[in-house]
User: Fold these one by one.
Assistant:
Number 1:
Amino acid sequence: MSLTLDKLIVGAEVATLGVAGDYGLLNNGVVGIADGRIAYVGPPSGQLAAAETIDAAGRLLTPALIDCHTHLVFAGQRIADFERRLQGAGYGEIAKSGGGIKSTVAATRAAAEEDLFALAASRVRWLMASGVATVEIKSGYGLDVETELRMLRVARRLGAELPVTVRTSLLAAHTIPTEYRDDPDGYVDVICNEVIPAAAAAGLADAVDAFAESIAFSPEQVRRVFDAAGAVGLPVRLHADQLSDLGGAALAAQCGALSADHLEHSAADGLRQMAAAGTVAVLIPGAATFLDEEHRPPVAAMRDAGLRVALASDLNPGSAPLGSMQLAMALACTRFGLTPAEALHGATRNAAAALGLADRGEIAIGMRADLALWDVDRAPALAYWFGAPLLSALWIAGSSVTWETPRR
Ligand code: DI6
Ligand code: FE
């Protein structure tokens, strides 16, 4: 039986990622696309015809990458903080003296929506240049109803005007804003009673996130925020155990979170609870590297627990000004000890699971045709080359897209 397709990619080293833990390699493989979806994957066949044929010439074809944790909508940069840190100042010390996250909140509150959009669009294009077709974007630099919603509107518009899929997370529980310094529970009231209902009513949030940490929100406060998310039917995720073990992994599992992210300091018991609850572990090697933190997440315990492990850039101005998922994969291997195969699963299949998306992250019939062609001839090379621009082509829902940043 012959099959007529829109596009055929032939002669590729295909990493299908169809099976957990394995590249699922297909040498001299062919991938056929019809109506934006994958309609054929397998060996060359005389039964295939298409309007357009692309010769991969032996290069590696993977699912397009998925960045499942970013804070890329913000104004201002933190270059002065960076220079101070290079001279020995700590991240916490800088925050206390008026720099840090609060300076980004001030700049973001003051920025026009149009300017926030232009800044963020450039950053999405950086990620596209590293093979990304799906990106999660958080609010969290507004910390008031108006600015949190503005950030989410910008994120939604990025998804509408750029070819990427955008998933949004409301992170009003990122830090306590200055005006609530003496009344953190009052700010949690605002999040629960005003910000979450307003974002849900406007259809601006796909999930609700929170930062559980001694310098941010307590487990009790996180539970209140998550209850408010549940009341409007939104799934939750959690910044957990990044700087200390607050029991964040177990908390995320008990709340049925889609993912728990960071997890540098998590205990094995919490990781086992996550595995039982189906909560995905999201590792963030860029933040640990940029802040020069020695402490590594318990990767061996994650493997023992049978957790699905995803990777993300965390693209943000303070702890990870990292605009490449390719580099996040390399750092996951060199800094956290993942295998290159684990890193690629983390940037595709498992990242899709962290976002609750079942239609992408592997090359299989019926999946979205989000595909990346790389200028390498074997799968482990993706995590080996350190920051080289390896992307040769990117297809999103079957359409070829470009990723150049236009001159401004
Ligand atoms: N953890 C992080 O690494 C970022 N947010 C968070 O909850 C840092 C955000 C910033 O410093 O601007
Ligand atoms: Fe983060």
Number 2:
Amino acid sequence: MLEADSQRLRLSSGAFVLRGFALPYVSQLLPAISVIEGISPFRHMVTPGGATMSVALTNCGTLGWTTDRRGYQYVSVDPATGDRWPAMPPVFAQLANEAATMAGFDDFEPDACLVNRYRPGARLSLHQDKNERDYEAPVVSVSLGMNATFLFGGHERSNPAAKVLLYHGDVMVWGGADRLRYHGIRPLKDEPHMLLGSERINFTFRKAG
Ligand code: SIN
Ligand code: FE2
């Protein structure tokens, strides 16, 4: 099932790891994150089941993903500030579009970018991304900072999951037949990164509306 060329690891027909694809953008991405969190700070949201997420999140773009006791939803206004989410920086949209093209998904125009912040011990349990209006567009996910073990499962939660180590600058793209696969992140180890210290930042781009 694994097939690789120099910079592209194919996990399945529509799922790719693009090693180091975001590295040329890092010097633009980091200041952009500071601007975003200055407008809409990272916060720990509560799941419908009542658990506080170990991952802290914010969003940029027209729509932002949220969770509370009532459920998961995309909204245009940040519930913490009462204002619209910060705009998606053009370099974010460009990176997402180019990564999608590399994976065979042309014309990807994300309207939502979820920014996740992981500190040591933070994790994301297996889930499907299915709050978007349709599943035509892929999910593009950019990793910065500390390494993480990404779990790439199947279409049932109980299916075995492949472990994929994601490094600073890696981009994952999954779409098509793989769009609704379960995925998650193992609890992060504290192995500080040169630029980001004991943090991992992940942006996940989607066409939500
Ligand atoms: C997500 O599934 O929303 C994020 C995955 C990641 O942090 O790599
Ligand atoms: Fe996800």
